[in-house]
Here is the input.
Amino acid sequence: MILWGGRFQEPPDEEVWRFTVSSADRRLLEVDVEGSLAHVAGLGAAGVLQADEVAVLEEGLSRIQSEARRGSFPWSDGDEDVHTAVERRLGELVGEIAGKLHTGRSRNDQVALDLRLWMRHATGRHVEGIARLAAVLSGKASEVGDAVVASYTHLQQAQPIPLAHHLLAHAWSLLRDAARFRDALARIEVSPLGASAGGGTGLPLDPAIPASRLGLPALFENSLDAVASRDAVAEFAFCCTRTLVDLSRLSEDLILWASTEFGWVTLAHRHTTGSSALPQKRNPDAAELTRGKAASALGRLAALLALEKGLALSYNRDLQEDKEHLFAVSDDLDGALSALARLLDGAVFDPPPPGTAVVALDLAELLVRRGVGFREAHEAVGTLIQRLEEAGRGLE
Ligand code: ARG
Here is the structure.
């Protein structure tokens, strides 16, 4: 189905049609119907639709919502996008009156609303997933007790620290990621409905009515901006990407620690994978793939920003491409959060003691406590370590 046949002299060219239709947006089905139910309420409140018309449309949309939830919505390849599919289905269920659903609305404000509703749900899920992983890290920190490892700078042993301190460093960066998601909600939970195609509508609709039905605390300030902007999508994608970058660093640590050379941690058999050639191998593939997913997310974030960069205001069809990137970064984050939480949960830490040179700074500070200037103490301990090394000995 198409929603715009009237002024066309011929049907769409099949190849061009196939190139322009969207199927990635099928994941917006539930939020699209949620938005339409709120829109119908607004049309009713304005007297644009009569109460009996509102009831029929609500009944039809509720049936579509059940189909969406059961996974039985009848998709048709002939529909241009998810919005068209819902209007087509509504027509099948309630007849011609379905044509009144789109009154005072455009797919431009509709899709902007759908994205925001979808990101609102996803944000809640990501915050929970991050909190779960942070809790696993903090549980492991308690479990390892006072086990001591070296801290590293430049990947060289630096100072003696509790392993718990290192594990909790990852937990703290994750908590900031969760806070960043929550902050982004202030810019996600803004209703663009009422902006219509960008210039608003001449009908006496109050955008506050659907917004309040949807529980969106803020309204668009400018109708062109409402349909043209995808900064909330890019910000959400940044929050996902930033979290994936932190997960990637956690992964890199786990990969190093699970190596024979480090030997700090043993990963559970059920969380590792084998080699088709090397019989002895147990590889930390889930952690490696998390690093890989972070790379994909970085690319997708760049794609989202590039998508908007050269667009004359307001809506342009380029923006249809945003969905693929948005869904992918969010899915990859879901997957990585859950895989790493499992990997860590099954990990057994038993680090060997670090090299004795890690107490070098403590030794220098001991001299400082006895009145030696720090630069002199630094020099003395450095010289001592150098002489011991030449004699094949360590600080012990
Ligand atoms: N499928 C479109 C998208 O994802 C919906 C908006 C279409 N608007 C339009 N004027 N063709 O962006």
